[in-house]
Amino acid sequence: MPNLTLDSLQTSIVDDVRRALAEDVGDGDITASLIPADRQADGRIITRESAVFCGRAWADEVARQVDPQIAIEWLVNDGDTLLADQTICRFSGPARGLLTAERSMLNFIQLLSATATRSRHFADLVAGTNVKLLDTRKTIPGLRLAQKYAVTCGGCHNHRIGLYDAFLIKENHIAACGGITQAVSRAHDIAPGKPVEVEVESLEELKQALEAGADIVMLDELSDEDMRTAVSLNAGRAKLEASGGITEATLRSVAETGVDYISIGSMTKDVKAVDLSMRLRFQAAD
């Protein structure tokens, strides 16, 4: 599947931020109302640890929706490597707006940077091989597109976005359809042109999937030896994806079997937020 681009996410970003602010601000930030409405402030966001940055567009949208008078000067771009104590942006504007925007801005940046950082870690582990690392649908509810974009900022790639843009035929689908051949044939009839992927648990099932005309075959928890055999049997007829039971310790050896893809759910579901800090300086009242 093609990777998501920032240009394709503009509507999603607006919606993500609208939901976040509705959740956080509700009908008004009562604590920020303690500050005089004309009070101005400036400041910066720093990272307390090394990371791969992502989330600039979401932070910009938070500022726009909270108070268009907030101005942000970015010192980094999505995909940049950050060092501990590095300033990632400077900002200025109404103090009330900055205080209201603070948590939502940081939440988006720390989550998306964490996803990009973890993705970069995995990408580095397979550097020099021809494999592409793919994300999965194991994402935070409501933020799938944002996280999948962050994956690309870390140097990995997007699998299908949801249940609508590609087939992934698994054991239960196969059983319900009466077999791999029947399931693949039915998929081609229902949505011609949509990618059809079949999950298999043995080399015999791989042969059935290839004969049925699958575009991609997912090798579920096969041994490295069986994956190398699968690559030989496949002979380029379909793309091969390894999945299931793959750890950081085994990732490199799986990549070296010659499979085209490896999908990793922990790229998006097991992330630890990047530690950020927003520092404000209030301008003297007139």
TrEMBL record:
It is an enzyme of class 2 (transferase). The keyword ATP-binding does not apply. Keywords: Glycosyltransferase, Pyridine nucleotide biosynthesis, Transferase. Residues 116-279 form the Quinolinate phosphoribosyl transferase C-terminal domain. It catalyses: nicotinate beta-D-ribonucleotide + CO2 + diphosphate = quinolinate + 5-phospho-alpha-D-ribose 1-diphosphate + 2 H(+). GO terms for biological process: NAD+ biosynthetic process; quinolinate catabolic process. It holds the Pfam family QRPTase_N. SUPFAM superfamilies: Nicotinate/Quinolinate PRTase C-terminal domain-like, Nicotinate/Quinolinate PRTase N-terminal domain-like. CDD domains: QPRTase. Coiled coil: none annotated. PANTHER family: NICOTINATE-NUCLEOTIDE PYROPHOSPHORYLASE [CARBOXYLATING]. Belongs to the NadC/ModD family. Involved in the catabolism of quinolinic acid (QA). NCBIfam families: nadC (TIGR00078). This is Probable nicotinate-nucleotide pyrophosphorylase [carboxylating]. It comes from Halopseudomonas oceani.
